[in-house]
Amino acid sequence: MLKRLLLYISAVMLFSPSAARAAVDFIYPSPSSAVTTPGHLVFRLNQTEISSIRITHNGLAGDPVDVGSPEYRKLFQDFFIAQSLWDPGVNRIVVDLFNGAQKIESANLAVFYAPEDVNLKVLPEYLPVSLHRPEKERLCQSCHVMNPTPAQMNSSVEKSNPCYICHKKMLAVKYVHGPAGTYSCGYCHASKGSPKHAVPKRGAELCYECHADMAVQIKKKKFVHGPVEAGMCGACHDPHGSQNESQLLKPINELCLSCHGHIRNQKHVVRASGGEGHPLSGKNDPSKKSSGRQMSCISCHGPHGGEVRYFFTNNADDRMSLCQMCHDK
């Protein structure tokens, strides 16, 4: 079994060899492309004499995979599909093809992985890629529904929803966004358009269609947090789900400090007798005793905005009154 790539079972298409073609056609991701989610590694084998392949990922070689047996060809024929485990940054893939013990050829692929929850700038030589393009979808349509109807995109039955079959990994998280959890893909994604299956609206314009109550709350606030005012819901929330409450991209403090990093290197608010600043974590939040929640940035600051500068949760200008929420002395 591969150490870096897990074989993902999926039926594929008929073999059609061509002497002019390379031994491997990389279908997804494309060579020199950039991706933001793990997804899959999909390529096509164009030589009948291949008995096994070996994939090396960033210098780490996996075990050989038997792709020449009748059993494999019956299931996969000339395709290889694997669940990818990319490293952030540049990923270099080498596919070695063997006929018995003899290596026939090697194929190379470079992919840049920039997860949405990591501040990583994509190098200019790597371009965004989408599998949902006509020339690529034609290779999948014998086994997959590549042009689902709105009803199919909103089917709450796993086997009936064609989106779920390939994208179910994004739901393997602790906190799943409601529409994603009910496989209601068509609530946000269009069945047509360019690029295909893109969301027809972006940011708050789309989110407020369901979260109208939040739109009302935001309008009432005197001071609004910058990303919220700009309608950038995706700057903090994952639209499908995450391991963090409220589908946050990172744990609360990590998320806040990814923009307000200067707070890491200074005493926050006050200097205690021991020289340390106000705790930002590691202690129970006295204002939320019943919930058992720990201290975090949102213990004192509203993440969306407030009635006063710095978005104090008690909406009072007097900073001492904020302190007295917990320090009743």
Protein model, in words:
The chain has helices at 70-76, 134-137, 150-153, 162-167, 178-181, 204-207, 212-220, 226-229, 252-257, 319-323, and strands spanning 6-7, 24-28, 33-35, 40-45, 52-57, 60-61, 65-66, 79-83, 89-99, 102-113, 127-128, 175-176, 223-224, 241-242, 305-306. With 329 residues, it is of the alpha+beta class. It has 3 domains: 6-137, Immunoglobulin-like; 150-200, no CATH class; 212-323, no CATH class. Strands 3, 5, 6, 7, 9, 10 and 11 form a 7-stranded mixed β-sheet that branches. The chain has a 4-stranded antiparallel β-sheet with strand order 1-8-4-2, with no helix packed on it. A hairpin with a 2-residue loop joins β5 and β6 (60-61). The chain is elongated. The chain starts with 5 loop residues before the first strand and ends in a 6-residue tail after the last helix.
What is the subunit organization of this protein?
A: single chain
Helix content: 10-25%
Low-confidence stretches: 1-20
Q: How much is the radius of gyration in Å?
A: 25 Å
Number of DSSP helical runs: 10
Compact overview of the structure:
The chain is α+β, with helices and mostly antiparallel strands and 329 residues long. The protein has ten helices and 15 strands.
Q: What does the secondary structure layout of this molecule look like, with pairings?
A:
Elements: E1 6-7, E2 24-28, E3 33-35, E4 40-45, E5 52-57, E6 60-61, E7 65-66, H1 70-76, E8 79-83, E9 89-99, E10 102-113, E11 127-128, H2 134-137, H3 150-153, H4 162-167, E12 175-176, H5 178-181, H6 204-207, H7 212-220, E13 223-224, H8 226-229, E14 241-242, H9 252-257, E15 305-306, H10 319-323
Parallel strand pairs: 3-10, 3-11
Antiparallel strand pairs: 1-8, 2-4, 4-8, 5-6, 5-7, 5-9, 9-10, 12-14, 13-15
